[in-house]
Amino acid sequence: MTADQIKQLIAANLACDYITLEGDGRHWYTTVVSAEFEGKRAITRHQRVYATLGDKMKTDEIHALSIKAFTPAEWAAQPV
């Protein structure tokens, strides 16, 4: 899968204020900012992002995905 395809899957299934994705075609790194993460622990946020990908992780279309998941307020507080 390409970076654009993965970003589209995430964005289509999760209301994102911001999303980046980079990687080498097998190992991916994403930052996702969503109001849906409000009040949720990190593990729940990651599970929500994984859920947007359906079976892509199970079938090895996406081998590895590292996730940084923020609420809009957390993202705004990040150092520049």
UniProtKB/TrEMBL annotation:
User: Looking at the record's lineage, which domain of life comes first?
Assistant: Bacteria
Stored SUPFAM superfamilies: BolA-like
| Transmembrane feature ranges | none
Q: Return the Gene3D superfamilies for the record.
A: BolA-like
Please give one Pfam family short name.
Answer: BolA
- Signal peptide annotation: none
Hey, which family's this protein in?
A: Belongs to the BolA/IbaG family.
The protein's name is Acid stress protein IbaG
